[in-house]
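Co-fold these.
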Amino acid sequence: MKVVKTYTEAELISGIRKDNHDSFQKIFERYSQPLYRFSLSYLKSKEAAEDVVQEVFTKVWANRKELKTNTSFQSYIFTIAFNSVRKYFNKLSKVNGIKHEILLEFSREATNFDNRNNFQLLLDKLDKLIEEMPDKRKQVFIKKKIEEKSLKEIAEELSITPKTVEYHITEAMKFLKKEFEELSVKGLIFFYLFIDK
Amino acid sequence: MKENFDLHILKNFSKGKYSYNDYLSVKEWFDNVKDFPGFKEELSVEWDEINRKESDEGKSLDHIFEKIHYKILLEDNKKERSFNFYKLYRQAAAVLLIPVFAFLLYYLVRPDNNNLLNSGWVEINAPEGARVEFFLPDSSSGWLNSGSKLKFPAVFEQNREVQLQGEAYFEVKHLANSDFTVDVPDFDVKVLGTKFNVLSYAADSQTEVVLAEGKVEISGKAGKFNHTMTPGKRAIFNRETRVLNVEEVDAEMFSAWKDGFLVIDNESLEQVLSRIERWYNAEIIVEDETLKSYRFKATFKDEPLEEVLRLIALTTPIKYSIDKREFDANGILKKKIVHMTLKNN
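Predicted complex below.
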């Protein structure tokens, strides 16, 4: 007869303290999904949310000798997770700021842009449009606008002339402008969606 | 002007419904957690809620676990390696113990203790990268430089004789009617009571004696020459031409190594490097023959190899690189290997 033993959390914690990898894996299975969803809801980035999961559990293992079996592991993990989410939020806010500037550039007609409550939608649309660009143009655009590299740097990295870099940027901006204007005309973003609150 | 923490904004933000101004608010709360006490609490409540809900949707995070696990195993592996370092130290300590055993052996075989071993020889080794002080049965003493070997009888006869490979500094005790002879491949150095340095590494192209005090007599192995030295002199025997040259020197400089000084006095790079190799237990590969004729003057005290090389490179058109050190089959670190090339080449 096969006996399936279910472990209590305290048993798993004391297992981790004794360097038991299986206990660690069970704790990971129990908390990684909630942690991922929690991080994603604030970071809005799957990569960053995964990074948080990795960072938190790496810390849990590194500090395993200090784990306590008599207090709630759930609140212990929150303390680490909170700091980790904060850290990644700050990291991402720089990139988001840049994207905001790009969006602002295409939405001059829109009044009260800053108070429309679908900023996330605009960000997602921008990401989607960038994704639609031809490969080289996409690379150039991300390097120039998001990573804020100079024309010369990009030219060297991609082995093209600075003139070509400039051309790609101009074309990319034209493309985005056209797309956002179309959406605006259709009222999808700058009218209809903004009003729904 | 600070806005207050707004739960409604936070809830909508987590659901992806927010304006840029809302985003700025959340950013402000994350930046200044302490000024918005309700913020962290609300996140904590949300965290507990997420954990209460049993939800099996969501993508697999197995690959993240694999990554973490890989890192953990890597870390464990490193720990095992540092254990090997411990083994290495033990082996190094064993090498250093050799001289200690030599003394022990001497005490064990003192004439009044044990006559059976009277005819035995004792050997002291100074491994490369180390210098060893020694004391002989007649209470003469001295220092053995890196990569050198000194052999002497457990009990001295009427005339004291020691054999040297490498470099040693001697302070010989004067005994009436008893000569003290240092035997090196090229000649014998016969002394009364005196302080002197003998340098005779098998790999070098010359053998030399520098006399600090007293009087020594150098006699060639085949009776080719016989020279009596006076203090402050340096006798150099060229192994190729088999000629003995004597010059005046500052004798102290030639025994400064026993006090931890590495003195280079207008020597060619080739000579310098063979000394540095022994001093630091390293191997230096010179990739440009022309470099070997550069001459140097410098004194180092307790400098690591990297610093000595850096200083040499600073004053000469020499470039160098140090190879990553590797372990041999027994887990012992191999010698450091340094490559030297001409700059701008």
